[in-house]
Amino acid sequence: MPNKQPLAYHEIEKKAQIIREDIDGIQREMGSRRPRDRRRRGSGLPQPRRTAEPRRIPPHDLAAERAVLGGILIDHAALDRVNLAPEDFFHREHTLIFRAMQHIAALGTTIDRLTLYDAFKREPGHPPAEYLAALEEATPSAANLVKPAKLVRGHADRRRLIALLEDGLQRAYTGEAVAPLRERVLQGVANLADQRPDGFKSTSWAELQHTSPAQEDWVVDGLLRRGGLSFLYAAPKVGKSLTARTLGRAVALGERWLGRAVQQGGVVYLALEEMPVDVQEHFQQMALPATAPVELVFEREPEETFRKLAQLIDTLHPSLVIVDTLIQLVPIGDINDYARTARALQPLLALTRRSNAHVLCLHHARKRGGSYGAEGLGSQALSGTVDVILSLKREEHARILSSTQRRGRPLEASVLRLNEETGLIELAGTKKARDTALKEAEILGFLAEQEEPVGVATMQAALRSQRKPLLDTLRALVEQGKIGCAGSGKRGAPYRYFAVPEGSATPAVSAAGREPQQSSDSKGLGLEKKAVPLFPTDTGEPQEQKR
To answer: DSSP letters along 510-542, please?
Structure first.
């Protein structure tokens, strides 16, 4: 006798559903029959009737649930359109499948049968691979999933309402006071009624304008606030890890950072790229006390790092979390894909808002750089998601740090100076002031080499400078008495400039010119181009490049 082929999972489910419907029909039929009245012995009272209530199945639509899941398997981008939660699905296997889909999407991986089945390996009682194949084959298209998604969401809302009313019924039977019970039920129904079909809960303007705004709580005054997400962009080996660790130390000890007040609090530092010995040496150099509230994480498990980080934050409640680097925590996949990048960052953003900690993620900048705030490697979804963008650049043999942010006081492009002994950084003036000083030194050096007063056009060609910045710098130098000016500025007698000896007053010079004078003003400024180190230190000596 030939062996029978085993039934597929979906066929077994279909037969089980038919059996359940038959049982429900029998129970309904039995419940509708009227039992005989029986009188109690020794009394004339009739015995209370015991009518068998039919077992009711909560409202659901398995076909709609299968259509939604099959459509996502065909087009994984449909996951963003259905606007559902795992709890909206009635069937347990469907809940597991949808939750796994969300997890896979958060990792930036394509949703298909292979990735789903791999995610199911840790879930007991997961549906077999044949069922996943049947879901995809039974769905003709993913073009219109709005209707089945609305059906699934509608049945889920009905089940929540039934659960709410059943809970009120049970509380009424147990004798709970009427007033609080009525308030509980009405409030629960109102909460369900406030939810729009798309899942949003709105707030009226009349309600909002009478709500006191929450006071902003800054970790670094005017720069990084609690519950905020920020990125630190920098090219490799520019010093972003070093800069972030100095910030972590300042928060742990409550010390000022870059001239700004800091709120003391716990710090979690994820060193997902550097070697532990390098991190240890820098913290020791900065004299971080053993009692400082700093937790270091060096483990890196691509599928578990984010979950473990969330657990650690919920346990420690830190003020600042530093992630070095973003791509090691959130494996986005194609980082140039806007939709995928934005979707992958949502769990991180939600964790930041929920934990009320500030999360600073380090990320690499583009090879060709970019304007301040837009130089991050990858899609613009990165810059669009965060609250603050810190940009660290190497410009003209110096490190320049600036911020672009929604609220607070942005950090103007400023020069950083590294203390060789302590390993700490501090501000060394703004980039604008530094550029002006360099330009002044360049002009003073050029004029000191000229035998005759020089016009603007000659200097513009020799220094390769734009006309307006050059005129502004010349005017400032004349006002300071560092250079002299000859000529009336009229036709035939244009302005011409010459160097002034240090410590002498500006002489009256005619259009005929003057004897050349040597000037040491450029040396006195201490801003010669060759003397500016890659990362300026307090000692003025160049430092070896550090990350």
So the answer is: -TT--------HHHHHT--GGGS-SS-BTTS--
Helix (H) or strand (E) holding 484: strand 483-486
Alpha helices by DSSP H, 272-325: 276-285, 305-316
Q: Please report which helix (H) or strand (E) contains residue 99, including its range.
A: helix 92-106
In angstroms, the CA 265 to CA 255 distance is: 11
Q: Which residues pair with 415 in a beta bridge?
A: 400
Helix (H) or strand (E) segment spanning residue 429: strand 425-430
| Distance separating alpha carbons of residues 391 and 19, to the nearest angstrom | 65
Q: Which strands form 294-297's sheet, in the order they lie side by side? A: 294-297, 267-271, 320-324, 358-364, 229-234, 388-395, 398-405, 414-418, 425-430
CB distance 176 to 99 below 8 Å: no
Would residue 63 be called left, alpha or beta, if left means φ above 0 and alpha means ψ between -120 and 50 degrees? alpha
Q: Tell me how far apart the alpha carbons of residues 29 and 35 are, in angstroms, rounded to a whole number.
A: 13
Q: Report the side by side order of strands in the sheet with 483-486.
A: 454-455, 496-499, 483-486
Count of alpha carbons within 13 angstroms of residue 142, beta-carbon side? 18
Pairwise CA distance, residues 69 & 139, whole Å? 9
Residue 378 to residues 272, 342, 366: CA-CA distances in angstroms?
20, 11, 8
Q: What is the pTM of this model?
A: 0.58
Q: Which two three-digit tokens encode residue 55?
A: 């077992």
Beta carbons within 8 Å of 62's beta carbon, 6+ residues apart: 17, 90, 91, 94
Q: Which pair of tokens denotes residue 540?
A: 């003025």
Could you report the per-residue pLDDT of 240-286, keeping only the tens digit for each?
A: 999 999 999 999 999 999 999 999 999 999 998 889 999 999 999 99
- How far the first Cα of the chain sits from its last, in Å, is 74
Q: Which two tokens stand for residue 261?
A: 């007040």
Q: How far is CA 388 from CA 29, 306, 347, 404, in A?
A: 66, 21, 18, 6
Tell whether the model's pLDDT for residue 167 goes beyond 80.
yes
Amino acid at 229: L
Q: Are strands 224-225 and 454-455 parallel, antiparallel or unpaired?
A: unpaired
CB of 292 closer than 8 Å to CB of 307: no
List, in order, residues 6 or more apart from 47 with CB less than 8 Å away. 37, 38, 39, 40
Both structure tokens of 485: 């000016």
3-25 pLDDT, tens digit per residue, is 545 555 556 666 666 666 666 66
Residue 420 in tokens? 């060789």
Largest pairwise CA distance in the chain? 141
